[in-house]
Design goal:
Number of strands: 5
Mean pLDDT: 81
Low-confidence stretches: none
Helix content: 25-40%
Distance between the termini: 10 Å
Order of helices and strands: HHHEEEEEH
Structural class: alpha+beta
Oligomer: single chain
Length: about 160
């Protein structure tokens, strides 16, 4: 009985260990396709994110841009747009210091509007990626150590 339990635990560890590396974000947002993003937008520009202000209470985040070039509309030198806080609500995650091509309708933008990061001028994205990989490696090492210990220290039947 103990041997069977040990085998089940080892099997579970081997199956579940790669999940932090393999798992990708789940998207609940559904976007309609087949449209020209520039034609649909009221305002389109290339700009650098100056500030991302997502207060804890509301469902939206305000993003302030320093406009570099205009593709459509008249945003001026600075523009503030609203996006949903999370990707499940079709929010777009802007990073401070990032350079983006942004499409907006009615003072808002979303992941469905075709926004595109052009350059990473801020280290936050790289830092999050590094933390993810270091954490994944740590989990894999811990699981491998646990499996190794279980194999080297078999329980004797009672």
């Amino acid at each position: 009985m103990v041997s069977l339990l040990r085998r089940v635990v080892v099997l579970l560890l081997l199956v579940l260990a790669p999940l932090p590396v393999v798992a990708s974000p789940a998207w609940a947002c559904s976007c309609a396709g087949g449209f020209d993003r520039l034609e649909r937008a009221e305002l389109a520009f290339v700009g650098v994110v100056e500030e991302v202000d997502g207060d804890w209470i509301g469902p939206d985040t305000e993003v302030e841009f320093a406009v570099e070039s205009v593709l459509k509309g008249d945003p001026g030198k600075r523009v503030t747009l609203v996006t949903a806080k999370d990707s499940a609500s079709c929010g777009y995650e802007f990073v401070e210091g990032g350079r983006y091509q942004v499409y907006s309708v009615g003072g808002a933008t979303s992941s469905c509007d075709g926004n595109e990061m052009l350059a990473r001028m801020h280290r936050e994205v790289e830092d999050r990626t590094r933390i993810f990989w270091v954490g994944s490696v740590f989990v894999l090492i811990a699981v491998a150590g646990g499996v190794s210990w279980l194999i080297r220290h078999p329980r004797k039947p009672q």
